[in-house]
Every structure is written in structure tokens, then in C-alpha cells.
Amino acid sequence: MARQERLGYVFTLPVALVLFFFTLGPGLYALYLSFFSWSLLNHMRFVGGVNYASLLTDPLFWIAVRNTAVFSLVVVPTQTVVALIIAVILHQNLPARRFFRLAFFFPAVSSSAVISVIFMWIYNKFGLMNSFLGLFHITGPDWLGNPSFALPAIMMLNIWTTSGYFMVIFLAGLQSIPPQLHEAAQVDGASPWKTFTRITIPLLRPTTFFIVVMGLIGTLQMFDQSFIMSQGTGGPLYATTTVVLLIYQFIFAYGKVGYGAAATVLLFLLILGATLATNRWLGKSIEY
Amino acid sequence: MKEASWSSPRVVGSILACVLTGSMTLAAMPALARAATATITLSGWTSSPVEAALMKKLLDHFNQTHPGIHVKYRPISGNYETILKTRFVAGDAPDIIYVNNGGESSTFIANHDLLPLNSYIRASHFSIKDFFPGALSLFTVHGKIYGIPKDQSPLSLFYNKTLFKAAGIAHPPTTWAQLAQDAHKLTNPKKHIYGLVNSVQEPRWAEFLYEAGGEVMNASMTRMELTTPQALKGYRFFVNLYRHHDATVPGTVGAGWSGQAFGMGRAGMVLDGNWLVPYLNQTYPHTQYGIVPMPRGPVNAETLTFPVAYGITRDSHNPQAAWTLIRYLTSRKGMTRWMNLGLALPARKSLLSLPYYKQHPVLKGLLEDLSQSIPWTFPPGMVQYSSTLMTNETTLVVDGKLSAKAALQDMQKAGEAILHAGG
């Protein structure tokens, strides 16, 4: 037994080392840095909890928290529902389902940076989006230049890119539901809607749990799309400033490393809390 | 200072190897010969691949004429100062960097990341009298010179001759009243054409404050001066162009920046610098345009200029070789070479009469603006303030959500708070 245990440690050692040096270690270092004042270029100075105190009274931090929360609360439910709907449709024996599966999955394997640049053109004042709206005689805004529309524009982009990925996971979940359950329900005279809500959705719970948690973590850490589409500013008028973008700005642009590190610790607590809450809600296993 | 880096691990290693094997083999010879050449790196941002190619050409010429020194050109194409900071943290900054006029340059100087050049200037009898004093003063702190100006670009008024003709305007504006009037005449929202297209970042409106007799900060940059009646007058003139819809931001006309809007023919006028000239030549070569000095205000005729310098970093292993390169690039001859590539205007007064400018009369407006321009910068700790807060306040004003006076008061208060906190 002891020998087997030792072997187990040996085999997991490479991964454990990578995890420690590139994930856990930097995480602990960020916690350490959050108690210091440092501009990257000068000498570090211990300041205790000052960074946390001033962060919690910094209106800019709360703007970023609000933007991130709104982003997450809109994107996660929408992308989950959209992914489920597409997955259920593609689960039927439709013609050309392979083509559609590929088409919906395609954004997930494309570079987020490239897609962001393409969408900057689509959201241009005279871009594809406004031309489309023009068909209905709607004059579209300068999406990314207007504080009211910039964040929703990024939400739409994000839902589009991630739904396809989660659709594939839902498809796998659908395929793992034993077909005899559906057949039995049919024999008992249940309507398709009832089978869907009483059998399909409950049995998809482990899949849904995974998708909601991954969606939450992904949206709470959103950075690249805001960074590219606002050209690093988080503007207009802080409309696209997310917590991670703000952390980047604090550390690399404004030389407030400890301050930014304190924000990463708070973001960690936020994500941890959201994940634990989701776990209590969806994490229970279901057996029939 | 040693010309060759004899202490580099490779050289030490090969010498050790020779000692250990007890014989100086022929194989070790080329390594020693290479080490006798000092290798230095130069990094700067690039506005375009064209600029990088031209810089490389210039440095190739240096490498050919200076056998003892080899320069490697390592341009940084985006997030220049951010990347530079990480290189400083790693203790691995390039030998020579472009020192910006605004941004972090004051922080780099304050943190001793750049070497003072006075001893090199003295030892090599390098005359600094020919440089524009304003440009040089931007990189001088307490008498120590941290950068030798390489070039500069003042803001001038670019106007689209085709649009001016169509609007029946014979001459480009020379006064504020004409500027406002012409902007109004040129604007045609149905055709998505506006009189003036510029972002509302502070370098586009600060010059109006100076022209009205006000200023953003006092000359020694210890106080904010945004709440004077003169400052309000200048600021109000700028924001009113936008509030009356005779001016707009580039996004409104589907452009990413003012130069693009100008090339697309959707801007009657833009306030821009020399960088727009090569861009138009390449991307929108059919634009019929002229450049005139910034229109005169009620008190002054002033504009902003953005000088850039070469500095030597504290991480340089070979400051003497780095200085040789800077001396070469910023000498009359070297700067003439750079000016003849047409990317920026000279930092030396004597080069205003270059034959190049006679061959390219379109640059006349920019050259004239050099004599009435304020080198633009902020003290350390004000990057967030100037890049975000000032732009946001002005965005609120041009959108009609805040009064000009209130915005200036906000900026005054926030700026003073930073200055009191010591940056």
C-alpha cells in the first residue's frame, strides 16, 4: 500500500510541480504582494491592510465589480439556455447536423483576440450590425463608443463564442441519458415537453453544474474582449472596465502592484463564493 | 568603460576551456573575435512596419560604419511602456530606449531607470546648443539630462481641400472664429461629414487653454491651473464645437482614429501631427489636403509638441557604446538622415532649413508650429489621471451631461490631490 502511494505521488509529481509553480505559487505571491506598496520599479514597502481598505472605498473598484457582476448574470444564464436549446435540436436526427455542430462549435476554437477584432468591425457605426438593423429602419449606435451599448455588445459577442462550446458538452450529456427512460415515459403517455422537463433536464444536472461553474469562472475573469475592444482603456466612461482589466491597469499601467494584488484576492473570494453557492444549488447528484 | 564585454559568461567560458585544455585551440578564436564587438540593443515603439524598416536601415548604416559596435534593433509594437516596465523588473531592459514625452518617462527618470548623460556629453564634447530648449528640458531634471531628443511632432491643423472647396471656403482658418465657422459650414451629418473629427483626449484640447491665455499646470508643474477664467474660455470653445455638432469623435463616422476619419473624407479638419503624413501617403494617397498652423486664439497662437528622446537604461552593459550610437543618431548628420525619411520633425533648430522641407512644402504648417509649441508632459503618477480621468470628464461634457466649469473643477481637484500625495 505504502509503495503504491509513493508511486502515486511520483506519477502526479510533474503535474503537481507545474500547478505549484504556475498556478498556486503565483496565487500565494499575489496574496503576499497585496500587503505591500510597490510600483514595479521602486522598492517594496510593507503597508499591511491599507491596500484592502482603500480598495473597498475606491468607486472605480465598485464600478468594475458591478460591470463584472452584470456581465456574469446576463451571460451565464443566456449562454446556458442557448447552448441547451441548440444541443437538444442537434440531438434530433436532423439533416446536416454535422455541419451545424461544426458551425456552432467553430467560435470556441477560434482565437478570442481575432474574434474581438472582427466584432469591432461588425459593431462599427457603419458595420454589419447597424446595416442589419437598418433593414428594419433602426439607426444603430456606435456600439463600442457608446457607454450604454459597449458592455451589452461584448455580452452578445461572449454568448456567441461560448454557447457553441457548452452545446457540445450538453450534447455529450444528452447522449449519456439512457434512452429506455424516454421510451418508458412515452409508453406511460407523457408529452414530449413533460419528458424534457421531468427527465432530460434533471438528468443533465451534472452537465449543467459543470457548465454554470465554468461559465461563472470565465465571465468573472473576463479580460481579453474588454481589453481589445476598448483598446486597453476599459472605456467609454469605464463601461467595459471589468475587475480583471482593472487589475491589469493597476499593476502594469498605473504602477500600483499591491493595490492590484489586493483586487485579485477579492476577486478570488468572489469566484470562490459564487462557485460554492452553485455547488449547493446544482452540485447534488440525482438518481432515478 | 570597456568597449567589449570581457566579463560575459561566453567569453569567460571559452577562456576557461582554453586554460583547462592547456592550449589555445583555433576553434576558440572566432568566439573571441566576436566578443571584441560590443553588442547593444535599441528598442522603441513603431507607428507602422514602414517606420521599423526605416529605422533598421539607419542602424544598418551605423553597423557598417562602426565595426566595434553591433546594434540590434528590437522594436516593441504595442503596449510599449508596459512591456518596458516588465523588462526593467527583470533587470533586462534594452541598452537604449525611446523616451516618451508623456506617459511614464517622468517615472523612469524619478526611479533612476535612466542614466544621466551629462558626463558622456562633456567627455565627447557633444554640443546641445542646437536642440530646441523646450524639447531638451523635457528630459532634464535638476540639471541632469536623461535623454537626447531624436525628433518631435507638433499638432497642426490638417484640412481637406476637396471638402473645403465643396463648402465654398477659400482659405483654411487662422482664428478661432474662422475655425468654428468653417467647422459649421463643413458639417453635413447626412453624409457623415463633420467639420472637426478628433478624440476628446487632453492633447486635443489643452492647446486651446493656452491660446486663451490659460494653462493646464504652472510651468514648474507643481499646481493645477484649470479653474482660471482663461482656462475655462479655451476649454469651452473646444467642447462647444462638439456640443453644436460641428465636431465629433472618430467612432461617430465609423473610424478608429482621427487620421482614418480624415483619410475617409469624413473630416473637414483634424488636429494631428506629422505621423499622419506617411499614413495618408500609404493608406489614402488620393486625399487632397493641406497643413496650417493651429488657428490663433484670443491671446496666443500656441500648440503642443511631442518630443521623443533616446535614453540609456541602468541595465545597459555597455553605456559607452550606447552613447556612441545616440551621438551618431542625434548628430546633425544622423538627424538629417532620420528627417529625410519624413516621419517626424527635427529636434535641432538648424535642421528646419533642410532641403527636404523645400521638396515637401506640405509640411510648412507643421514647421511653423514648432516655434510656438509647448512640449507636452505630466509629472510622475499622473498617467491614470491624464489618460482616463481627463478624457472621461470631457466625454461627459461634450455629451451634455456635465458643464464645462464642473468638469474643470473635478479635474483641478483630482489633479491637486495627486500632486499633494507626491505622485
CATH top level of the largest domain in chain B is Alpha Beta
Instruction: Report the count of strand segments of chain A.
Output: 2
Oligomer: heterodimer
Number of helices of chain B: 19
In angstroms, what separates the terminal alpha carbons of chain B?
Answer: 35 Å
Beta content of chain B comes to 5-15%
Q: Give the H and E element order of chain A.
A: HEEHHHHHHHHHHHH
List the domain count of chain B as a whole number: 2
Strand content of chain A: under 5%
What top-tier CATH class of chain A fits best?
Mainly Alpha
Task: Give the tally of structural domains of chain A.
Answer: 1
- Main sheet characteristics of chain B: 6 strands, mixed
Given the helix and strand composition of chain B, which structural class is it? alpha/beta
- In which range does the helix fraction of chain A lie? over 70%
Looking at CATH, which topology of the largest domain in chain B would you report?
D-Maltodextrin-Binding Protein, domain 2
Give the name of the CATH architecture of chain A.
Answer: Orthogonal Bundle
Extract low-pLDDT stretches of chain B: 1-34
Rg of chain A from C-alpha positions? 23 Å
Largest interface: A-B, 23 and 25 residues
What does this protein structure show overall?
The complex is a heterodimer of chains A (288) and B (423). With 288 residues, chain A is mainly alpha-helical. Helices cover 73% and strands 1% of the residues of chain A. A two-stranded antiparallel sheet of chain A has the order 1-2. The longest helix of chain A is centred in the N-terminal third of the chain and has 33 residues, at 59-91. The radius of gyration of chain A is 23 Å and the shape is globular. The two termini of chain A are 36 Å apart. The mean pLDDT of chain A is 91. Chain B has 423 residues and is an alpha/beta fold. Chain B folds into 2 domains: 37-153 and 307-361, Periplasmic binding protein-like II (D-Maltodextrin-Binding Protein, domain 2, 3-Layer(aba) Sandwich); 154-305 and 377-420, D-Maltodextrin-Binding Protein, domain 2 (3-Layer(aba) Sandwich), CATH 3.40.190. Chain B has helices at residues 9-21, 28-35, 49-65, 80-89, 105-110, 118-123, 133-137, 161-166, 176-186, 202-211, 229-243, 258-263, 276-283, 319-330, 332-339, 355-359, 364-370, 383-398, 404-420; strands at 38-43, 69-73, 96-99, 140-141, 144-145, 148-154, 156-160, 194-197, 247-248, 267-272, 289-292, 303-312, 373-375. Chains A and B meet through helix 12 of A and helix 4 and helix 18 of B.
